[in-house]
What we know:
Elements: E1 2-5, H1 16-25, E2 30-34, E3 44-54, E4 61-65, E5 75-81, E6 95-102, E7 108-116
Parallel strand pairs: 1-2, 5-7
Antiparallel strand pairs: 3-4, 3-6, 4-5, 6-7
Amino acid sequence: xxxxxxxxxxxxxxxxxxxxxxxxxxxxxxxxxxxxxxxxxxxxxxxxxxxxxxxxxxxxxxxxxxxxxxxxxxxxxxxxxxxxxxxxxxxxxxxxxxxxxxxxxxxxxxxxxxxxx
Length: 117
């Protein structure tokens, strides 16, 4: 027996684990295709938060952000700058607004970041 997983169940590459769980619970069903929806292609989000710290050589920034509708509740997460210069002038405890994309491989990449008073 074969099962094609609907796009709504295989939202992004990092959620393929769900497909594995489905196949395990529906044994001996095998997944033969997972439709990758266009919506998975690097959706951009906007958020506000406070800078908590930086990774070595400013490879990433940890930001305690407010709720990000449609993405994540308020918490502290790391974000990688698209270009290191994006973090110039940003320091710990700065209040910031930023835009980012969540890539298919699970990295959150900053598109823009700016200080807010």
